[in-house]
Amino acid sequence: MMMGEDVEGGSLGSYQDRPRTFPNMRNKAYTPLIFRILMGINVRVLFILLLLSLGMIFYIGASTSGIIVFVFTVCIISFLLSIYLTKWVLAKDEGPPEMAQISDAIRDGAEGFFRTQYGTISKMAMLLALLILCIYLFRSTTAEQEASGVGRSVTAFVTVTSFLLGALCSGAAGYVGMWVSVRANVRVSSAARRSAREALQIAVRSGGFSAMVVVGMAVMGIAILYAIFYVWLGVDSPGSMKVTELPLLLVGYGFGASFVALFAQLGGGIYTKAADVGADLVGKVERGIPEDDPRNPAVIADLVGDNVGDCAARGADLFESIAAEIISAMILGGTMSKRCKIEDPSGFILFPLVVHSFDLVISSIGVLSIRGTRKGSVKSPMEDPMAVLQKGYSITIVLAVLTFGASTRWMLYTEQAPSAWFSFALCGLVGIITAYAFVWISKYYTDYKYEPVRSLALASSTGHGTNIIAGVSLGLESTALPVLIISVAIVSAFWLGQNSGLVDESGKPIGGLFGTAVATMGMLSTAGYVLTMDMFGPIADNAGGIVEMSQQPESVREITDVLDAVGNTTKATTKGFAIGSAALASFLLFSAYMDEVSTFAQEPLTQVDIAIPEVFVGGLLGSMLIFLFSAWACSAVGKTAQEVVNEVRRQFIERPGIMVRIPSLDACQ
């Protein structure tokens, strides 16, 4: 209370003489309902329930396929590894009290946002689930579904269950990303006082925990649904559904994940950009104080935005991309196996789950390869963090090539086309090369070491107008190479798949679409490590803010500044990676959609004719929606930023003690 009275009266004295303490803004910690229920159960009872659940999961998996058991095993091991990473990170110290107080305020804001946003999303998801239920209850069924006894009610129940589980897992993925970032930031700040490499290791392992959980949940959720539906519906038994049709029942899972990811990305993005713009406009432009200055009331909101926009939203986004890619590839694999009359189609259907299981393994190795050493301490030259992260990514890429080749030989070998697995392995290699190219292009256009960023900085020396023009032109230019690479990847993978030797009854090659699916799997085969690099960005950004607000020595701020700069590059890298994988996945989703339409219409749908007026108008409307939603999002950011600016101005006017001129700043001016 004394500090608040002094601030309002402007009697705190000089800025340097103020005590480095902050009011306790920590409210009661927020924990989602499902976690509160689990925490209320006795530990022994919870352990027994966990063992029973695992036993049941493995029993259902063993009743389905040995491949499912392998997937379950890898996912559980990855969850155990994530627990180890969590304990390792949380065992690090939080530094002096002023650091912990700032971190508590950031955590409180992030949890408040999560509670508000995801509370609204959950209500909307329940309403949409009821709508889906009604639609499927009145939807016509295919002849195969009627013959196998899977009627409308069963299809509706299965789809709604899949939708709700996908939405739940996507929300949990977002919460996990936010949960670890708001606890790791202060530990990275504290470690920066000792060693740059230690701070880097903590940030990377914090991101690795989130990445393992996100990828593991996506794979585990789909595998559990597949196994449950397989056993419950008696798939492949006489008079029941064929295994090639089972993936069609999983589309609800991908839709649920997409539904939550859409609002998480949009809501989190609007929050973080509005807070960032508002804090910079008032602080740096109007008042001339440094970024993350503790006198700026909007700094905490800015730091909260890093967590809810880049951690929680990106976790849900990549969860959705992985889930959509797996399900669409399973649908295409089942359709191709059916048309090729392959005796055991389970390998082609379950191949995506195996690829992402190996993704968990190789990404874990990449994360653990980054060790903490005394090299790069405060008193010695600092090693380039980007080089360290790139080294870990190179290890992950090499392992991805090896494991992908082994997976294709194990899962995609068939007597009908003995060399098909090698063609699909090359498709995977195309995807892996595409992923590496996207990472390199994003790094080139966003890293301060390269010409684009340097030319943009040079343009800033002649004013705001030239800076904006150069920035817009640079952003437009950066789209060219990714589009060319995606185009080459799609055509190359389709050609390799078509020449794999797999043909239908008429002798027509039909492996092209599945080849593009395999290329998409190859691109996402390192998703775990890429997501780790993305989570590294906001954690490093928060660490720099905490160091600045707690007024740590300049040598510590230099370390966090470098980590922050690298983090901005890794965040951009993940955005490029996510967009590229989404482009490939959208091609798969459209192909899977055409397969499902063909199944229900009982006639082939091989092309979409844009000369038909309705189709052409649909394309125009779809293109228009992109610009319309972008305009609405930008408008929301602008309006929210105005509110932030007005609120900060009000606080500066009503509480004059907030702003006390710094002698060093006066000298600079």
UniProtKB/TrEMBL annotation:
Cellular localisation: Endomembrane system
Enzymatic class: translocase
Keywords, in A-Z order: Ion transport, Magnesium, Membrane, Translocase, Transmembrane, Transmembrane helix, Transport
Domain of life: Eukaryota
Secretion signal, residue range per the UniProt entry: none
InterPro entries, alphabetized: PPase-energised_H-pump (IPR004131)
One Pfam family hit: H_PPase
Transmembrane segments: 33-60, 66-85, 124-142, 154-181, 202-233, 245-264, 348-372, 392-412, 419-441, 479-497, 509-531, 576-594, 615-633
Membrane association type: Multi-pass membrane protein
Keyword Transmembrane included in the entry's annotation: yes
EC number(s) reported in the record: 7.1.3.1
Cellular component annotations (GO), alphabetically ordered: endomembrane system; membrane
GO MF assignments: diphosphate hydrolysis-driven proton transmembrane transporter activity; inorganic diphosphate phosphatase activity
Name recorded for this polypeptide: H(+)-exporting diphosphatase
